[in-house]
Amino acid sequence: MAVEEDEDGSEKAVVQYVNFNQDAGCFAYSTSVGFRIYSCDPLKQTLRRDLDGGVGIVEMVFRSNILGLVGAAARNKVIIWDDDQSRCIGELFFRSEVRAVRLRRDAVVAVLEHKVHVHSLSDLKPLHEVETFDNPRGVCAISPASTMFVLACPGTMSGGEVRLELYSLGKTLFVQAHESPLACLALSQDGRLLATASIKGTIVRIFDTNDGTKLHELRRGAERAEIFSLALSVNCHWLAVSSDKCTVHVFNLVRSKFEHKPRRRLPRLSASSIFSLAANSSMVQGVLPSYLKSDWSFAQFRLPADSRAIVAFGAAKNTVIIICGDGSYYRCAYDPDRGGDMVQKEFAKFT
């Protein structure tokens, strides 16, 4: 871990983990010396805590005083932190490393490599335990709305299967979302829509959580990519995607296939991709029609090389907030009618 100095001479570490809160009004990031919380618009530090041993994971419950922490060293324990009291008010211990934590106002979810544990947030009593396929990335999503509690995680039969627990309806569904293992999941605020991506990273799919119906198939690009984040807008009209290709894509989920679409620039196929497709004519017949028929991104924003970013929709209409691991913050706007290149409205460094 590279350590830098703040202006006052105190130790400052680079970002280890970063995530938005449930309404994307804030984001929190952890370092080897503690954690920080910033409001997204305007960008402003609202909380700084230095903790012995550092923090590996930090998750918020909206803008409340309650946070979920995993230490930088003790990775098998989830700490429930009350910042009003500046102390731990509860702990959950597990036999293996906690890969991810998800929070609602009424629940805390701890994701292990082969299990997902759901506990009540008020008293930490266990509510449910789910067996999963290998999940080293800690892939999991929960809906934040109080009216609908939906959990999405890997199933048990294959790496590309999604298990949906609709707790509010007492229903469990299994969706074969991808052939390759899952890389990222996202749920809409109301839990109605599920977005999925695999480690292949070329296709993002949208499903109806009520019955598992596939609603959209969206193509991020032609070549493999590591998907860092997926985000659905509050009204479920838009989907944002960030990846290691350093382009943030926004997809239109409501524009009819029969409406006029803005002219788009198809991504370039590398020589290796072209030769791979051409090597087998039957493969061309099977893959190329799907490639051409896929829904491509509506708007795009290019980040500097090697950027690792997460994305969410901003409070202002037709804006996205992009947070990068190097401490960069972008607020960008897209034209909801024309699409194309997004306009950078703000840039800042928060570390």
What does this structure look like?
This protein has 351 residues and is mainly beta. The chain folds into 2 domains: 131 residues, YVTN repeat-like/Quinoprotein amine dehydrogenase (Methylamine Dehydrogenase, Chain H, 7 Propeller); 198 residues, Methylamine Dehydrogenase, Chain H (7 Propeller). Helices cover 6% and strands 48% of the residues. The protein has 2 helices and 32 strands. The strands form 8 sheets. Strands 19-20-21-22-26 form a 5-stranded mixed beta sheet, with helices on one face. Strands 23-24-25-27-31 form a 5-stranded mixed beta sheet, with no helix packed on it. The N terminus is likely disordered. It is found in: Preautophagosomal structure membrane. It is a peripheral membrane protein.
Q: Mind telling me the C-alpha Rg?
A: 20 Å
Number of helical elements:
2
Q: Which spans have pLDDT < 50 for at least 5 consecutive residues?
A: 1-5, 256-264
Estimated helix fraction: under 10%
Here the CATH topology of the largest domain equals Methylamine Dehydrogenase, Chain H
Briefly note the structural class of the backbone. mainly beta
Oligomer: single chain
Number of domains: 2
Please provide a brief summary of the model:
Helix content is 6%, strand content 48%.
